[in-house]
Design goal:
This protein is of the alpha+beta class and 216 residues long. The chain has two domains: 1-45; 53-197, Heat Shock Protein 90 (2-Layer Sandwich). Helices cover 41% and strands 21% of the residues. It has five helices and seven strands. The strands form two sheets. The chain has a five-stranded mixed β-sheet with strand order 2-4-5-7-6, covered by helices on one side. Helix 4 (95-112) runs antiparallel to helix 5 (166-176).
Length: 216
């Protein structure tokens, strides 16, 4: 028969082995998450492709942006949903600039919502355009200031928490590719709607619109 001392040693050995295995599993999962995040950041910034405008996968850009902002969303307890049509066509743009648009809109929504708030992101084809909507359940934008939110340096955030350039840059980036942005807002629901042409613009290509300069 096994003595109590031998049994105790065996149980301690098993416990140590289980703890080591559990730690190894945790390390592997953490390494996988880091690998996924690094991949998302590389795709988000288009580090491997700086050639300029091309046909861009909007769905992948939205997924990568949500991934990049996942830690901020988790810290706020926010529920972020992404609903992208399976037949979504590519759009002609510079991928890094388009991802900056998604980053500005989703990051603003995270700032606007309350703790445990909700953000719903969707992308659909509507006629000759791809339409992306970012909807949040924050307090809304007062009607009297809605016409000003795209003005440079206009911000509703407390001093030191915003430059007031995010939406101005967003609109100027979209105009490069004949895109449009609009907002509808009331208490409990704010929707930013971005529309982009599916085909490559013919007149003037995808360069700067007349009178536009590079975003600061």
């Amino acid at each position: 028969a096994m003595s109590e001392e031998t049994l105790g040693a065996a149980l301690r050995w098993l416990a140590t082995g289980c703890a080591t295995y559990s730690l190894a599993v945790d390390i592997r999962h953490a390494a996988n998450r880091i690998h996924e995040l690094v991949g998302a950041v590389k795709r988000f910034t288009y580090m491997d492709n700086l050639a300029g405008p091309e046909f861009v996968d909007v769905a992948q850009g939205l997924r990568d942006t949500v991934r990049v902002l996942a830690s901020k969303a988790k810290a706020k307890g926010a529920a972020v949903t992404l609903d992208v049509a399976t037949d979504l066509p590519p759009v002609y743009a510079t991928g890094g600039e388009l991802n900056q648009v998604w980053l500005n809109l989703i990051d603003n929504a995270l700032d606007a919502i309350p703790e445990a708030g909700r953000i719903d992101i969707s992308a659909r084809r509507e006629l000759d355009r791809v339409v992306v909507r970012v909807v949040d359940d924050g307090p809304g934008i007062p009607p009297e200031i809605q016409p000003q939110i795209f003005d440079p340096f206009f911000t509703t955030k407390p001093p030191g928490q915003g430059t007031g350039l995010g939406l101005d840059i967003t609109r100027r980036l979209l105009r490069r590719y004949h895109g449009e942005i609009a907002v509808q807002s009331r208490p409990g629901l704010t929707e930013f709607r971005v529309s982009l042409v599916v085909e490559r613009p013919v007149a003037g290509g995808a360069g700067h619109p007349r009178g536009e300069s590079d975003p600061a």
